[in-house]
Design a protein that fits this description.
The complex is a heterodimer of chains A (145) and B (302). Chain A has 145 residues and is mainly alpha-helical. Helices cover 77% and strands 0% of the residues of chain A. Chain A has five helices and no strands. The model of chain A has no long low-confidence stretch (mean pLDDT 91). Chain B has 302 residues and is mainly alpha-helical. Chain B has a domain of 198 residues. Helices cover 51% and strands 5% of the residues of chain B. In chain B, the strands form two sheets. A two-stranded antiparallel sheet of chain B has the order 1-2. Chain B has a two-stranded antiparallel ribbon with strand order 3-4. The longest helix of chain B is centred in the middle third of the chain and has 39 residues. The relative contact order of chain B is 0.17. The chains are: A mainly alpha (145), B mainly alpha (302). Chains A and B meet through α4 of A and α9 of B.
């Protein structure tokens, strides 16, 4: 029988830092693509740069205030797989990212297909961040995962 | 046709001389509904962690059944608009299924629907009634609040409905009506079936109802204009199937007393298909359609 994945304080801190970084890069990339579709393409790098500058703060705050407590509960429940991390990231990030997006660009909500695409892309961003965080937070040597 | 549904174009619980001002008022928090919808949202966020294909099938089947039989055909076309008649036992079954959608009981459903319907027919109305507020404001208002008009119109629910003991029972216990379903689902499929079959179903149905309603009063194709109404309706074609035909909302504003809402070729209307089936089985009669309704002077082509 293989052991459960283990973690320690250092790995958790590393996971938070890397999660913030990955989230920031993905948000900046998302903004770049969105700006290409929504406005003059020459503004896309500027919009992405803005995202790169401002996204780290909400990501680290979100990971600390929401991700960490939820992760602790999942840890105690034995749910430590990367896929659990991905699902958690998708579920927790989608509402937060959607609130930001629809506050900045409310007309998206009037087109169901654009809204669905936005929600799906947010879920994907959150899932990637959650997967990475769970990957870094746990030492899986000697486990089946 | 029952007495209170004689005029197929009327707002049945609010008479034309009912007075009232549709503009001045404020939206206040509705604690019970808000906590209920919050709990359903929390359950929905947990549901992906309990995913199974059987739970997804339960979700789809129960959502479809409650929206089709309960909400679209039962609450909306039968109870609110009286667009057909049916035996009492079938009425009760449809209203129970409509209550299971998780939005409210039948009496509150009539009151909320008719207040919105009345408001949209005025020259101007509160943005709560017209869905003109911003996205999140509109969401919070409609799922967690209620409108308190400074001078509401006199609203009188038809005694046939308001005095019915079964409807009153459903009204008092509309949240508790999920309990037997929840217990059965938990017994058959554990947490997975419970979360998908109750929480996710209610959350998706109620949120979807609000979102499609919002779109239907803001954007989309139009065939008709009701010239005396301040708010015009739009069709939401992509939502025709999940709403069982209700998304042809422009048609509905033009012909509110019609059992048929998808009027033109290609306009799927599962709700009307069910009513036609019931009619063939002898379980529905006096089915109203635009062909059988009187002319409406205020109606114009868009």
């Amino acid at each position: 029988m293989s052991a459960r994945p283990r973690t320690n304080g250092g790995q958790v801190v590393a996971a938070l830092i890397v999660g913030t970084s990955v989230g920031t890069v993905l948000v900046a990339g998302w903004l770049f693509v969105a700006a290409l579709f929504a406005g003059p393409p020459e503004f896309a790098p500027v919009v992405a740069l803005g995202g790169f500058m401002y996204a780290p703060l909400p990501w680290i705050v979100g990971l600390l205030l929401v991700g960490l407590p939820v992760g602790a509960i999942l840890h105690l429940c034995g749910a430590r797989s990367r896929w659990t991390g991905a699902a958690t990231g998708a579920v927790l990030s989608t509402p937060a990212l959607s609130i930001c997006t629809l506050t900045l660009a409310p007309t998206i909500a009037d087109d169901a297909f654009r809204l669905a695409a936005v929600l799906a892309s947010h879920a994907l961003v959150g899932a990637v961040v959650g997967w990475v965080v769970a990957h870094i937070a746990y030492d899986r040597k000697g486990t089946s995962e | 046709m029952s007495a209170h549904h004689d005029d197929p174009y009327a707002v049945h619980s609010i008479a034309p001389d009912a007075g009232g001002d549709a503009v001045a008022g404020r939206v206040v928090w509705a604690p019970a509904a808000s906590l209920w919808q919050g709990a359903m949202l929390a359950g929905t966020l947990a549901a992906p962690f309990f995913f199974s294909w059987s739970a997804l099938a339960v979700f789809i089947a129960l959502t479809g059944a409650t929206l089709l039989v309960g909400h679209s055909v039962g609450f909306h076309r039968r109870l609110i608009h009286g667009s057909f008649e049916s035996p009492r036992w079938l009425d009760y079954l449809m209203m129970w299924l409509g209550t299971l959608v998780g939005m409210s009981g039948p009496l509150a459903m009539i009151a909320a629907h008719d207040l919105r319907d009345w408001g949209q027919r005025q020259a101007a109305c509160h943005p709560y009634l017209s869905n003109r507020a911003g996205f999140w404001t509109d969401y919070v208002w409609n799922l967690h609040g209620r409108l308190e008009l400074d001078r509401p119109p006199r609203q009188i629910l038809p005694p046939r409905v308001a005095d019915d003991r079964f409807y009153r029972f459903l009204e008092r216990t509309w949240m508790l009506q999920q309990a037997p379903v929840a217990l059965a689902l938990f017994a058959l499929g554990g947490w997975s079936w419970l979360l998908w079959g109750v929480a996710a179903r209610v959350c998706v149905s109620v949120t979807g109802h609000w979102y499609v309603g919002r779109l239907a009063h803001r954007t989309g194709p139009q065939s008709w204009l009701v010239e005396t109404s301040g708010v015009q309706a739009h069709d939401v074609p992509w939502a025709a199937i999940p709403t069982m035909g209700e998304a042809w909302h422009n048609n509905h504003h033009a012909w509110p007393g019609s059992a048929r809402i998808g009027l033109y070729p290609g306009q799927a209307d599962f709700g009307f298909a069910l009513i036609r089936l019931l009619e063939r089985l002898g379980l529905a009669w006096n089915v109203r359609t635009p062909e059988t309704l009187p002319e409406r002077p205020e109606l114009a082509r868009a």
